[in-house]
Amino acid sequence: MGSASRTIWPFIILAIFVLAADQLTKYAVEKLTVAGSFRVLVPGLLNLVHTNNPGVAFGIFSESDMPWRAPVLIVFSLGVMSLIAWLLLTGRAGGWLGQYGLVVILGGAAGNLLDRISRRGVTDFIDFHVGSHHWYTFNLADCAIVVGAALVILELLRDWRHPTRERA
């Protein structure tokens, strides 16, 4: 087994872990709660709300009944996932922060894509809020995408603050 194949295994394992954790939590919510259910977990901060979002992040397109919505979102997700895989496989994903960030994004995107294909929408259940100010309901895949994006941004900021010196 070559060096390149050894270095890709941590990425594959992490992406599969993120995908599996996402699907397991969605499965639990779907089996243990009724769609539309609401349960306070931490008063004034966190609720469990079983919803299905046929749109994208922040409820965009969720009210649309266009027949092309699902296929376009699936193709777009596949395109983004392909780009991320290409960046990783060709060594263009930056340093370790960017690489792991992209892998976590890839796992989260795969989780939401699997929902779109199998459930015609994404199962969301985390209702975070401070008092009466609620964020959009989200899931573990969404958390992974945000954490992954934060890692990529941290790497970009780190590289911006400490540019490499040109080699002679």
Judging from the principal axes of the Cα atoms, what is the shape?
Answer: globular
Strand-pairing-aware structural class: alpha+beta
Topology pattern, helix = H, strand = E: HEEHHEEH
The overall strand count is: 4
The largest beta-sheet arranges its strands as 1-2-3-4
Q: How far apart lie the N and C ends?
A: 35 Å
Specify the biggest β-sheet: 4 strands, antiparallel
Topology:
Blueprint (H helix, E strand, L loop, with lengths): L2 H30 L5 E5 L3 E8 L15 H21 L6 H24 L2 E9 L2 E2 L5 H22 L7
Antiparallel strand pairs: 1-2, 2-3, 3-4
Helix pairs in contact: 1-3, 2-3, 3-4
Characterization of the model:
This protein has one domain (3-55, 85-161). It contains four helices and four strands, in the order H-E-E-H-H-E-E-H. The chain has helices spanning 3-32, 69-89, 96-119, 140-161; strands spanning 38-42, 46-53, 122-130, 133-134. The radius of gyration is 18 Å and the shape is globular. The relative contact order is 0.17.
